[in-house]
Amino acid sequence: MKYVDEFRDGELARNIATNIAREAKPNVTYRLMEFCGGHTHAISRYGIADLLPSNVRMIHGPGCPVCVLPIGRVDQAIRLALEQKVILCTYADTMRVPASNELTLMRAKAAGADVRMIYSTQDALKIARDNPLREVVFFAIGFETTTPPTAVAVKQAAVEGLNNFSILCNHVLTPAAMHAILAVEGGIQLDGFVGPAHVSTVIGSQPYEVFADDYRKPVVIAGFEPLDVMQSILMLVRQINDGRSAVENEFTRAVTPEGNRKAQALVAEVFQLRDSFEWRGLGSVPNSALKLRPEFAKFDAELRFDIDYVAVPDHKACECAAILRGEKRPQECKIFGTVCTPQNPVGSCMVSSEGACAAHYTYGRLRKDA
Amino acid sequence: MSTRKTAYVRPLDLKHGRVEMSHGAGGRAMAQLISELFAAAFDNPFLAQGNDGALLPPMPNGRLVMSCDAHVVSPLFFSGGDIGCLSVHGTVNDLAMMGAQPLYLAASFILEEGFALAELQRIVESMARAAREAGVSIVTGDTKVVERGKGDGVFITTTGVGIAREGITLSGDLARPGDKILLSGTLGDHGMAILSQREGLSFDAPIVSDTAALHGLVATMLDSGAELHVLRDPTRGGLATTLNEIAQQSGVGMMLQESAIPVNPTVAAACEFLGLDPLYVANEGKLVAICAAQDAEKLLAVMRAHPQGSRAAIMGEVIEDSHGFVQMTTKFGGRRIVDWLTGEQLPRIC
């Protein structure tokens, strides 16, 4: 397939692997965090860990939208569907995230809640148009990539006067999460970031400069194809060897320094910063998420319905929090692969294919140290 | 099922008519639906007996194989087929995977009140055509009607019987380390045909379902004399799930070569676009064969000579592994597990 196979070429991969092995100094450990779940997935699915020397270690980051959603947020969505009897529209990944009382959105659906799986915010608008007598709520989750389509939907609903439509906004911000990881005292040692792919097409490469300048961490923005990941690892190894910390862009075919200005303007028009937002694993992070601006308040499900946010602690044995901070690996969790599997996930990291635990379980659990 | 000649009965309005509750009530309306629609299309002497069951002639030598399959696909009509032919192929293929020659089918219909008779006729005629092509007779059936809103147009369950020739034993627990794994053709065509239609995705070349009866291909494979151990059609859950089932039943592992697995470029593109893996997408006209290593090339040649196996490939081998892992060497050069499908990848595809 054109523009895809080129980035999955095995021979090129072996060439890059040879270069990484030659250039990585044997007495140095390279601890690289891939921020995005998309990278985590690619690393597991294509067996990239098999192609790296043992002193180049990939640490999974928190860039999986479903994984960072705390239980209390899923509880709100379930209460909307079960108690307020709304039609709750959600992306598929969110359906199986474990919430309180042994519930998931999928189980709530089986118990009679009207939960609809959608592929696009346009589907949610259509459902609202087709059901004028019902309240329709879109469970809006995700990083900067999924925020612009939500903004479009809200603006469209305002223009059309779709008064039965609202959103439960959980859109979060990537740079804030990177700050939070680096700010943890006694947290993990990191030598560099494989920077987000799709997020960066929207926000551009400039927002990462602070990590290179202030925290002295190299950042290489990389696409989600396996060769992109390999090449970015090589670029990070080179920066570390040179003692440099800069923002470099491997994903030049899609990412520019300033990003997608139109999408940014749309988001700024509809959303504003929340003072604080609770992330699974990172706790409450200031200025790390978005809410609707006052002029769009009538589309805010949190204002429209009686569903106060109640923080709920994770399952005691679940290590999702430490895994999302990069402090633990999936196989270091006591319940990984036994009590907690993709079929019966206990923590959110076992749900989405982008989650570190699900990716490792699905593609790599044979490996001892991947 | 006898045709009434005594009084005039206004024929079914197959153009504008709709299924009514009376069509399932056991009275005259039901008798009319059966005779004018089902019996007319499926026409064969066993159905014409008009009894509660079909009295069949003595079976040829061999062992009786029986299988049953329910079909609830949405949309009912899709590129390359419809629920009618799918309901014949599904059961015929299940019989074929046991090495059986399919002979007779029973069909049960659950119709939703309000369903257009014209669409029902299209479905029934497609079923009749598929059965004729496959050389099986639909010898008995049943019709029920549920209230509007309690079905989804039509659900069809078919049950089939066939005869496996003497000396043939195929079973999911017979894969042995060293055996080769063959695939009869491209992956994911059916599931992606359904999904692209449902999501209104269009591509330069439309994706066409591969729904087809496979017993002809199976017969040539059995005739080749190759030492076949397992045959299975990778329907729901796709190839990945089918191989994991076999690995578990046989207590073995498997190692696949990604580069050897054929996928149509449009299907690959659609999967890429929707974030799906062709290994997990349903097929309705493909089979997986596991055979003794020394016969693999011979079997491959026979498969490729048959129209339904023209893109057949040897895509992996059975290995010893007490954990029963299915693994794959990726085109990229790494190794990954090919796990069971978790949850559902696509709703209502067959």
3D structure, described in words:
The complex is a heterodimer of chains A (370) and B (350). With 370 residues, chain A is an alpha/beta fold. Chain A folds into two domains: 1-314, HypD, alpha/beta domain 2 (Rossmann fold); 320-364, no CATH class. Chain A is 35% helix and 16% strand. Chain A is built from 14 helices and 13 strands. Chain A has helices spanning 10-23, 37-45, 71-82, 105-110, 121-130, 147-160, 174-183, 198-203, 209-213, 226-242, 261-270, 301-304, 320-324, 356-364, and strands at residues 30-36, 56-63, 87-90, 114-117, 136-142, 165-171, 192-195, 219-221, 247-249, 271-273, 276-279, 283-286, 290-292. In chain A, the strands form four sheets. In chain A, strands 2-1-7-8-9 form a five-stranded parallel sheet, sandwiched between helices. In chain A, a hairpin with a 3-residue loop joins β11 and β12. Chain A is globular, with a radius of gyration of 21 Å. Chain A starts with 9 loop residues before the first helix and ends in a 6-residue tail after the last helix. With 350 residues, chain B is of the alpha+beta class. Chain B folds into two domains: 21-164, PurM-like, N-terminal domain (60s Ribosomal Protein L30, Chain: A, 2-Layer Sandwich), CATH 3.30.1330; 180-337, Phosphoribosyl-aminoimidazole Synthetase, Chain A, domain 2 (Alpha-Beta Complex), CATH 3.90.650. Chain B is 29% helix and 23% strand. Chain B is built from nine helices and 13 strands. In chain B, the strands form three sheets. A seven-stranded mixed sheet of chain B has the order 8-10-7-11-9-12-13. In chain B, strands 1-6-4-5 form a four-stranded mixed sheet. In chain B, β12 (326-329) and β13 form a beta hairpin. In chain B, α3 packs parallel to α4 (117-134). The A-B interface holds A 1, 4, 8-10, 13-14, 17, 44-51, 95-96, 106, 117, 119, 226, 342-343, 353, 361-366 and B 199, 265, 268-269, 272, 274-275, 325, 327, 330-337, 339-340, 342-343, 347.
